[in-house]
Amino acid sequence: MLNLHHEIPIDILLRPMTDTLRGTLSTTASFFIWGMIPIYWKFLQSLPSTHVMAHRVIWSLVFVVSMLFFQQRWSEVKTALRNPTLRYTLMLTAFLIGINWLLYIWAVNHDHIVEASLGYFINPLFNMVLGIIFLKEKLHRWQFVSVVLAVIGVIFLTIEFHRLPWIALALAFSFGFYGLLRKTAQVQSVPGFCVELMILFPLALGYLIWFTGAPGFFGSARGTIYALLLGSGVVTAIPMLLFAHGAKRIPYITVGFIQYLAPTGQLLSGVFLFNEPFTTSHFISFGCIWSGLILYSTTVVFQYRGLKPKAESIAI
Fold first, then answer.
1. Range of 143's domain?
2. What is the pLDDT of residue 240?
């Protein structure tokens, strides 16, 4: 008989594997799903982004609470809530992920998928910087060059379009700090995510009641839209749980390495499915960032094989 007190069903399925391999597979799956998720939000384009966001929070909470009760792990949520330091940390992560979710839905449904994908291309390199500053992970010379290339790409796009790519930068910063705080928080993935959703829930419920004027808070949504709003909880919770599960088990630099699977899917869907423009300026800017990612990835491969580059470490 399965012991329901284990981490999550994913953990049970992958138990024979090493902890690092489990973390790698979980993190990879989460970013693959995130790469495909713009397609889902596009089907809800007829609704305000805030409305979709509120449903996302509510049905994600329903999904996660059901999982915790099924696993008889509700006591872990209570324990997290009784810890003042952890409670304040999760309040901050709830704010960060709420901003990230809302901005991303807005970007997708206002034809900014390409710029949103830029944010998630920047994010792995931003994660690397966070790992160096806060987790004392080492940065080698060529990794430093990869960060510089990303900065050049952002600056070039800003000059060409006469505006800062604020959507991209806000998404990168919010998710980068979210991942960092969740990695260091002393709480398991599912209970921690549940607390975050509980913090966001009153805002989401209050908004929907105000918006629709009815306890049902579906407004005029019917048919497919109704089903998609209900399904937003599953679509949101599964990759978030996979990410939280995986990120705690592998180096944060490795998280950054895997993470650009998601923006690749987002970029391809934005350009080829939704016909967003991808100009020469975009190509040059993305090219700088892609070059940085390739360079960064190469150094990671060397490190994993025990063939660390001879370049000196750089302290930032």
1. 26-304
2. 81
Task: Summarize the confidence of residues 279-285 as an average pLDDT.
Answer: 91
CA distance 260 to 117: 9
147-172: average pLDDT: 89
Task: Tell me if 301 sits within 8 A of 253, measured CB to CB.
Answer: no
Nearest to 211 by CA among 14, 51, 23, 20: 51
Contact 68, 77 (CB under 8 A): yes
Residue 310 lies in a domain: no
Give the C-alpha separation, 86 to 189, whole Å.
Answer: 13
Instruction: Record the pTM.
Output: 0.81
HSE at residue 42, side-chain half, CA atoms within 13 A, is 13
45 in Cβ contact with 229 (< 8 Å)? no
DSSP string, 35-92: HHHHHHHHTTTTS-HHHHHHHHHHHHHHHHHHHHHHTT-HHHHHHHHH-HHHHHHHHH
pLDDT surpasses 50 at 3: no
Q: Is the pLDDT of residue 307 over 80?
A: no
Q: Considering its fold, how many domains does the chain have in total? A: 1
Torsion-angle region of residue 297: left (phi > 0), alpha (psi -120 to 50) or beta?
alpha
